[in-house]
Amino acid sequence: MNHVHAQRAADLGERPALARSSLDRAAFRRADPQWLADAWLRARVVVVGPDGKALIRGTELVLLRSTDMPVTDPAAAPLFLGVEPDGTPFFAVNAELPQVEGAEPRHLWEVGADLTERDAGLLTQALALVRWHRDHMFAPKSGQPTTVEQGGWVRRDAEGELHFPRTDPAVIMIVHDGVAGPRGRALLGANVMWANADKRRYSTLAGFVEAGESAEAAVIREVAEECGVTVADPVYVGSQPWPYPRSLMLGFTVQGDPAEPIRTDPDELVDARWFTRTEIAAVLDGSDDSFGLPNRSSIANHLIRRWLGGL
User: Fold this and answer.
1) pLDDT tens digits, residue range 164-207?
2) Domain span at residue 283?
3) What is the pLDDT of residues 258-298, one digit of tens each?
């Protein structure tokens, strides 16, 4: 295993896949239009297509030179992402993906776990910014167009009010029975969005933090609402951005009682059940394909693997 892949494996063991980023966002540069204009001329660019895909070659994010892709559409204004230690600036642009030999369009959730720390951070940040701009081209009060400022980190409306990229906090939790070893169990649910899939997929429970609510209270409420199971004292594990379109997933572990009846919310889940570590491990190693688990780029996968290892 080479150094890059060893570092990637180590990172993934400790942090969720999309929580990795090595780029200096250099926020102080955002208010300097001249610096941004000069930086664009020597920048490397992440192109995000209208469908949210980016160009991937093998396990690398394809970065274009700004000089190879002039930006003429105001809706595709360059969005400043940051700089590398050598001073190379990075921008994102929302545009049609060009043809690049050996590269193919892929979604972040498909490839995020396989990218390097830098590329995972770049693509996550680029997708989050692009999606925010796509949804906020007009002022919410007046309906008038807004303009892009500060390298894409602000939109200003006609009345001068500033609008900043929005992040929606959500909790995601692995509910377990506290039992060590292969017989220990975790409660996973099958979302209604996956009801028509060829193979039923189970994941950790999740939900948005409501107004005036703490993350811990949201964990307790969401588990009760979705499965009817009572839990208490959730323990924070870590977070990961999930730009679909703008979530920040706050990961927790929390203990529940398998003897308590499961009552699923039919608007949320088609099924929920307790799985042993043996059952989960068999799916992850490919020896059982009777059901699916979350993709490797998700924090849900990270929480499941962390619990599987006894943490």
Assistant:
1) 999 999 999 999 999 999 999 999 999 998 877 788 999 999 99
2) 168-308
3) 999 999 999 999 999 999 999 999 999 999 999 999 999 99
Question: By CB neighbour count within 10 A (0-12 exposed, 13-18 middle, 19+ buried), where does 107 fall?
Answer: middle
The rounded distance, in Å, linking the Cα atoms of 143 and 146 is: 9
Last residue of a domain, one of 119, 140, 163: 163
- The answer to whether residue 72 scores a pLDDT higher than 60 is no
| Domain CATH for 304 | 3.90.79.10
- Inter-residue contact 246 to 167 (CB < 8 Å): yes
Residue with tokens 């029975």: 177
Dist CA 305 CA 294 (whole Å): 11
Residue 208, token pair as written in the block: 């948005």
Quick check: 82 and 115 in contact, CB under 8 A? Answer: no
Bond from prior residue into 245 cis (ω within 30 degrees of 0)? yes
Where do we find the tokens 């400043």? 80
Quote the CA–CA distance of 204 and 172 in Å, as a whole number: 7
Residue whose pair of structure tokens reads 């200003």 in the numeric block: 156
Backbone angles phi, psi at 242, to 5 degrees: -140, 90
**What's the pTM?**
0.90
Q: Which of 133, 163, 193 is the last residue of a domain?
A: 163
**Sign of the CA dihedral with 29 first, then 160, 134, and 41 last:** negative
